[in-house]
Model the fold of this input.
Amino acid sequence: MSKFNKILFSIIMFIMIPACNLPSGQVPTHTPDYVSTITAQALLIQPAAIDVASVTPDLSSQIVFTSTQSFTPTNTLTPSPSITTITVSADTNCRGGPGKEYDNLGALLLNETAEVVGKNTITNYWIIKNPDRDGICWLWGKYATVSGSTANIQEIAIPPTPTPSLPGAVRGLTASKICFFNGVTYDLAGSISWEDVPNEDGYKIYSNAGHSRTTPRDVTTSPIPNFQLVPGGSITLFVEAFNSAGKSPARSIVIACP
Done:
């Protein structure tokens, strides 16, 4: 039995007990209104209806807590790749390619530093930023020391050989002679030398007596042919540079004994 039914039953019993205790034969002076009484009592004990609208919280008046701490993303710095540099232990020409047949574009001097931008491993040349002008040039690696990683240095193909121009005439031609007198004539010996010229494949040396010989590139000395000279006699030697385009004007030196 529910709580409401229990209360209703108790009210009914409360009303009926006095009626049962009336003396017999007595009639109540008025008829009790049991229905109204029961209804009134029921209304008193029935829980009041809840007005949902009246208890709904006003969200507009609620306090909203927000964090005042701001978040600043950390910038991640990407390290720049290191630069590979080169120095030399002796002054070295820097050309348009790997060899003297290419134009001389500058030079890397002792105590200078240049940036490496390429390499040609087969020829042992480094391609560097020209220290003397804009652009790049090829540096022979014989006297070079490279600092930094070379793993990502690009291999550069050898450029086409330029059409050579005529080599220049030799300069600084000198003789170191030996004159040995045998009582009648002089036996001549010794050597000649000169300054190297660019763009040459070698040198030709010959004399007015018909002797001749050829030296390879960069070789700038030659022995004097063995001659016998009468006292006061002399010999003239000629030197000229050559390449595939032709030969330079000859330079001469006269050698006499004593």
In short: The two ends are 157 Å apart (CA to CA).
